[in-house]
Amino acid sequence: MSNENQTPTTTPNTATQSDKVSPFLSSPLPEGTPQGQQTSLQTPNDNKYTLPKGANKNEHVGETTHFGFETVRTEEKEQKVAHVFHSVAKKYDLMNDLMSFGIHRLWKRFAIQMSGVRRGQHVLDIAGGTGDLAKVFSREVGSQGHVVLSDINESMLNVGRDRLIDAGCTNVDFVLANAESLEPFEDNSFDLVTISFGLRNVTNKEAALESMLRVLKPGGRLLILEFSKPIFEPFSKLYDAYSFTALPLMGKIIANDSESYKYLAESIRMHPDQKTLKGMMENAGFQNCDYHNLTAGIVAVHRGFKL
């Protein structure tokens, strides 16, 4: 694993779990609030997903956008992405281990070390899915801190909710929200905002970055862990061959869904490269932005601050 600009150091974890039981651990997911949280993402009659408010914003995007290599109408992409993650939710963690040979755990550990999370802080984990990062943040912020695990997809959020309940994370709430608006959350609410392997699936990335800046407190930081562009051309070709052959095959065998993993490979290629994403963060208003390449640029951690 390689990186630029910084070598992380490991800090012993001494924080304890909160004794305060969140009502979200024993209650249904938020629904019917003025902020637009919703509890059901699928309408049985038309096989469509009712998404949290903020979807279908086409500012910066245009009438069409990409869904992998396919060109689709902008308002259709959220539905297509919702279907992908509804399909893969139950096998998501297993497939991550198989596809990355377990290396995704090292990528996430590095991102957590870069987060600078401290006891008593408030953390928002966007597109947090099955809760890998939120589980660690829950421990690190301690009983005086608070973590919100947020996702646009109910199937993914339910998996994360079950995992964190089993782990005894009593200082975590679970909220359905769209990254493009983050409507349930007030301005200047969080010390740290993270999004791990989720930004590439967002239709309007510019709007999402602006919303992340809005909900951060002054002095807070954004951390983006995402697939990126390999920095060595020969390695890039091998990576392409693996992505477009092995990933759909594993998806078919393990998850009975090759198309979702074909989309995964395509969505990575359509995501902005390291320098482009850094520029997008700066345009959204983040300061002191940088990025760190991992595994020769297959993945990059981007960081920016609200000053």
Which descriptors apply to this entry?
307 residues, alpha/beta, Rossmann fold, 9 helices, 9 strands, globular
- Listing every helix as H and every strand as E from the N terminus to the C terminus, the arrangement reads EEHHHEHEHEEHEHHHEE
- Helix content class: 25-40%
Class inferred from helices and paired strands: alpha/beta
pLDDT < 50 runs, ≥5 residues: 6-46
Shape descriptor: globular
Major pleated sheet:
7 strands, mixed
Tell me which CATH architecture applies here.
3-Layer(aba) Sandwich
User: Tally of extended strands?
Assistant: 9
EC number: 2.1.1.163, 2.1.1.201
Enzyme class: transferase
GO biological process, one term: methylation
Protein name: Ubiquinone/menaquinone biosynthesis C-methyltransferase UbiE
